[in-house]
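Recall the central idea of this unit: under ordinary conditions, the amino acid sequence of a chain determines the structure it adopts. In this exercise we apply that idea directly, starting from the sequence alone.
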Amino acid sequence: MLYGKRIRLRADERSDLPQFVEWLNDPQVRRYLGMPAPISQDYEQQWFENMLKRPVEEHTLCIEIQAGDGWRCIGNCGIFDINSRVRSAEVGLFIGDKSCWNMGYGTEVMRLLLRHAFETLNLNRIFLRVDAGNLGGIHAYLKAGFVQEATLRQAIFRDGKYCDDLVMSVLRSEWTPEE
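Accordingly, the structure predicted from this sequence is:
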């Protein structure tokens, strides 16, 4: 497991899938995830099976916060499409539990993923794509140290109109680990 100040990241389990389906069927949660339609339990099960076929470094992680004496899953994150030649990978996350929105968890998750990517996986560049309308996500990524490097104009169709997609990244040389 990967531990942060208020969170931990652990491997996704089959038992997490019903919660993911519930979250991903909420239009507010799904809005900026590029998922235009609700999903079924069978669809999520197939996604999980395909994820397990990827290298272990690319397996998704459950985001958990402390809840009493235990831990509670609030979302999902991961590092994927690792390019070993140039030491680059993409990251992504979603906080499905809306009671945990705007509490800084997204920033903490990204900082923890960056630490893992640079210190454990020996990567050099971490990037992500974010819908330009996702102001909360953009704020979290900037606080975690990402910089905007490109605007993909009208690359997304959301809410009946074309929207921009931003590419943001952090280079190992720019990254400052948290104390």
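Residues 81 and 89 are 6 Å apart (CA to CA).
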